Amino acid sequence: MYSSENIKAKGYIINAVQINSGNINKKIYGGSLIASVEGYSSLYIENFYGNELNAGNGVGAFNLDYHSSIELKNIELNGVSGSSSGGLLLTSKNEEKDSFFKVYNGTFTDFYQYSKEISSSSFIMTSNNINIILENFIYTKGGNTIEIKNSIIENYYSLYPTNFITCESFNDRDKSFIKINNGNAIINDSMFSDFYTCYFSSYCILELKTSFKELIFDIGLNANININNSILTFIYTDSIFKARSTSLITINNSDISNHFVSESIIYINKNLYFDGHYIINNCNFTENFGYYGTILNIQSIDSSGSSVEFNNSKFSRNYSLFNGGVLYSKVKSAYLYISFNDCIFDDNSCHYQGKISYSLSKLDEPFFSNINELRQIENAFATPPVNLRFISNSLNSISLLSGESLQNDINFYLIDDYNNLYITLTKNIDYYSPIDVVFLSIETNDPSNTALIGQKLSYCTNNICHIPPIKMEINKFDEVLFNFDLIINPCNDSKYINNDIENIGFKSCYLPECIPNCNSGVCVNKNVCDCSKTSFKGPFCNEYYKLNRHHIIDIIFKIIGCSLIIILIIIMAGLILCREDLVFKSASYSLLNIILLGLLLNCLYLLVLTYDENKVKMCIFEYLLHHLLWAY
């Protein structure tokens, strides 16, 4: 639909139905799935039903530009899908100041955005100078206005992380449901339900999850949002809200329930630009699930850029997998920025500490107007460990010799600022991060007289720490020093050895120990054996002594060997000269030569054995003679 400035045409569609339109595999080159309004035209649609509308790799349901406008009343769209840039409900470009898009009493379900382009949106994609009314009032770049009234938006899916409503605020890092950089937003009497975003796509979970943060409302520096009488339920995402230091998010008379958030509903971390100011009045937070502080997680805060105020709100059956069923705070003086005024907390829980709140310390907690009443709830408030409590059967003193190892006989619990037992991780640490582990360091305050040898670092498991008296420094709290009696017994020199075996200037008192044993010898020190009363030698008395050669015997063997060699040579020469003799022929001349040669080699081997030289040539010659004789 197009008209010029002079004509300004108006169109009406009443009581219409559109089913199974478009083709998911082909592009719509012009127009849109339902209506494309251009120029100075205006379109009014009432009582419209659409189902299974496939935009393919083209535009979405409505397209709008210049001075045109679209007004929808009592509209229901189901199963709208696409895989290109733009929004599935609305794509607007080159808008003029007076253009607008309005929706009253709209229901939008099962929207599928398959595009991974930054310029794509799962619901609305605008440029500038357009007023959009859907029960949400949003000013964005160029002065856009979006208002959403009496609308239901549910079953939102995307194959890739995409923004649901985008107003010229592209960002490669965060993907949001509604994202505004400039302006104001008002959401009244609406319901947002069943948003799964990245959870819809296994590719997104495995390949892209570490590259994007999934949000629902991402409010920029010059933007505010006001949510009234609305319902947010069954949303699976990283965080519901993200704001900047000058942003204001106000929520009144709304229900926020049944969410699964990996960070929290409200996440504040100034290092990641998660700041903003929040005012929440008369709201119900029910059955939400998270990891640390399901409703509010504060990692770091800007004193002027963040504040959160809860008034007359109720928190029921919220659960945290780790610490802080409702609130988790790692900042000092949180009471300056966070307050809970006249709020009700009912059956909130967590796996570890703090059913309601987990803060850096008791003095650094947020403000609770009914704090005395809430502290009556068991494990409602918790902090990191600040003290030690010895177990009743733990030793108060230990006696040992210098150099002996301390055994794990001294056990104690870690205690937080509320005198609660601090729960530590179990032995299975595969699913924990270092921030969950309580590490212990064993030190001495008298290094001139004491030395610690071996492992000095450890950690607590199963709620118990097994260590000797230590000075502990954990998670930014004051040092705690525990002392106990360590009795060093005198060393009995008749039984023990008193020696500096560690080469550190301190003597150890110890029993001789040899591993492996000394066989027939005597163990006299750490792996030192006395072999003097045995016929063996070596560190463990398991080596033979080298036999001493008797030179007189060697000379006798040399004389005998040389004499035999001369005699054998004379016999062999005579045998050669008389080889034609009938006697030698009958006795096998060849066999006699072989026998004489074997005897000659034996005599040579005897001479070689009398030499005490370990030269390579001599060893090779001896080796060859030995094996040659075996061959004979």
| Residues in helix, % | 10-25%
Structural class by sheet pairing and helices: mainly beta
**CA radius of gyration:** 45 Å
| Sequence of strands across the biggest β-sheet | 9-11-12-16-18-19-17-13
**What amount of the residues lies in strands?**
35-45%
| N-C termini distance | 114 Å
Mean pLDDT across the residues is 76
Strand runs, count: 51
What is the count of distinct domains?
5
The biggest sheet, with number of strands, parallel, antiparallel or mixed sense and barrel status, is: 8 strands, parallel, barrel
What are the segments in which pLDDT stays under 50 over at least 5 consecutive residues? 135-147, 154-163, 166-175, 469-480
Query: What kind of assembly state do the chains in view correspond to?
Result: single chain
Shape: elongated
| Number of continuous helical runs | 6
Structural commentary:
- Helix 3 packs antiparallel against helix 5 and helix 5 (589-609) packs antiparallel against helix 6 (616-631).
- The radius of gyration is 45 Å and the shape is elongated.
- It starts with a strand and ends with a helix.
- An 8-stranded parallel β-barrel has the order 9-11-12-16-18-19-17-13.
- Residues 135-147, 154-163, 166-175 and 469-480 have low confidence and may be disordered.
- The chain is mainly beta.
- It folds into 5 domains: 1-242; 244-251 and 262-383; 384-491; 497-544, no CATH class; 552-631.
- It is built from 6 helices and 51 strands.
- The chain crosses the membrane at residues 555-577, 589-608.
- Keywords: Membrane, Transmembrane, Transmembrane helix.
- This is G-protein coupled receptors family 3 profile domain-containing protein.
